[in-house]
Specification:
With about 240 residues, this protein is an alpha/beta fold. Helices cover about 35% and strands about 20% of the residues. The strands form two sheets. It has a six-stranded parallel sheet, sandwiched between helices.
């Protein structure tokens, strides 16, 4: 059995994985989901949040686990799991990008994504807050009304600094960690064409395709779990 460590995307928290965790646990896997600094229930002031603080939180969590983990990152956290793999490659069994950013060395999210989410900027707190119509139309466009309302209830303003911070990656470390990508073909937040441009830059072991929006842990729960279970049984 494996240990899955889930890292959420922007505006979210560990809660976003709640609906798929039980299915993995029922198969005997250990499942850990964390709140990044300034997200979920973490009380770090947004002005103190950076990509480095995200990475440090994940590294600290992994170092407490006895075995290498399957590290899963959604959306923004493709940047986070990439840097974590660079820092501690021997502690990662596999990287799993769920419609996530795949950076090249020296890139930030702001270098990859054009425009970004439709959001309002709070200069004092250095955060952005999603606009209501964008959530339903461009993010959870294939998810249920129940999941949409849950998402709206739980999201928080997103610290902006992690979008500007660059990763530092090498082929010798990050490049040797086995990776898979789960693309989402009905994604309006990170369109599938952009996903494919990004994952073409790295030799992924396998590409999984889901006819899902940007939140497959809502819109395609079973299919996402099936992908993760398949990843877990595939030899490194």
């Amino acid at each position: 059995m494996n240990t899955f460590l889930f890292v959420h995307g922007a505006f979210q928290g560990s809660w976003c994985w709640d609906q798929i965790k039980p299915s993995l646990q029922q198969k005997g896997h250990t499942v850990i989901a964390i709140d990044l600094p300034g997200s979920g229930e973490d009380a770090t002031p947004p002005q103190d949040v950076s990509l480095e603080s995200y990475v440090n939180k994940v590294v600290t969590t992994i170092e407490k686990i006895d075995e290498p983990v399957i590290l899963v990152g959604h959306s923004m956290s493709g940047m986070v799991i990439s840097q974590v793999a660079e820092n501690i490659p021997d502690k990662i069994k596999k990287l799993v990008y769920v419609c996530a950013f795949v950076p090249e060395n020296g890139q930030a999210i702001s270098d990859i994504a054009s425009g970004g989410p439709k959001a309002t900027f709070d200069e004092k707190n250095q955060t952005i807050t999603l606009m209501e119509e964008f959530i339903a139309e461009d993010m959870l466009n294939e998810s249920s009304e129940e999941d949409l309302q849950l998402f709206k209830k739980k999201i928080r303003p997103q610290p902006v600094q992690p979008f500007e911070d660059q990763v530092s990656l090498t082929n010798e470390r990050f490049g040797r960690v086995p990776s898979v990508y789960i693309e989402t073909t009905n994604d309006r937040s990170i369109p599938v064409d952009l996903q494919r441009q990004m994952y073409a830059t790295k030799p992924f072991e396998r590409i999984y395709t889901l006819d899902a929006d940007h939140f497959p842990f809502y819109s395609r729960k079973k299919e996402l779990v099936d992908c993760l279970l398949d990843i877990a049984v595939t030899e490194r």
